[in-house]
Each structure stands twice: as structure tokens, then as C-alpha cells.
Amino acid sequence: MSIDPKKLAVEYYFGDLQYWKLPAIAADALEEGYDGPALRSLGGLASLSTGEIRAEDVQPGEIDSAFREMGVDAPISKQRAE
């Protein structure tokens, strides 16, 4: 299955993609040739069951970095945009 990083980012940032799904997505991204420290860190959690992955295991900055490593810029806050 081919992942679509832009679609996944939209789903995540609009709240339609749960944090506990991100490790498996990161592992898939690594298999497809994307690479970077955040993807590796998140992908390392993929061996855990979804019930074992806690919100504090997946940091927001790490998620933003993982999307950047897949070529997608994370949205910026309104204050930073002004």
C-alpha cells in the first residue's frame, strides 16, 4: 500500500487521524524509502500494540518533523504567520 503523506498530514492536523496510528504509518513510510530521525523514532513504536502506545510516547514536534521528512510542511500557528 502506497502512503500519501499530504493526505495523512491533512487528516492528522484536522484531527481525523489518531496519534496511535502514526507509528505504523512511519514504519510504512520507511519501507517506501522516506527516512529521518523522527520517522525512525516513530517507526520504532510500531511493534507495540495500539493499546500500549501512549500519547506521551508520540511528541507533537516529532510528528511535525516526521511529516517534514516525508516532504510535507507542518502548519504554522496564526501568531507565527503574522
Structure notes:
With 82 residues, this protein is mainly alpha-helical. It is built from 5 helices and no strands. It is 49% helix and 0% strand. The protein has one domain.
Helix/strand order, N-terminal first? HHHHH
Ends: how far apart? 39 Å
Shape descriptor: globular
Mean pLDDT value: 87
Largest sheet: none
Write down how many β-strands occur, each being a DSSP E stretch of 2 or more residues: 0
Task: State the helix count.
Answer: 5
Q: Which class do the helix and strand fractions yield?
A: mainly alpha
Question: Layout of SSEs?
Answer:
Layout: H1 5-13, H2 22-31, H3 37-43, H4 60-69, H5 78-81
Helix pairs in contact: 2-3, 3-4
Structure, briefly:
With 82 residues, the chain is mainly α. The chain has helices spanning 5-13, 22-31, 37-43, 60-69, 78-81. The protein contains 5 helices and no strands.
Descriptors:
about 80 residues, mainly alpha, 5 helices, about 50% helix, globular
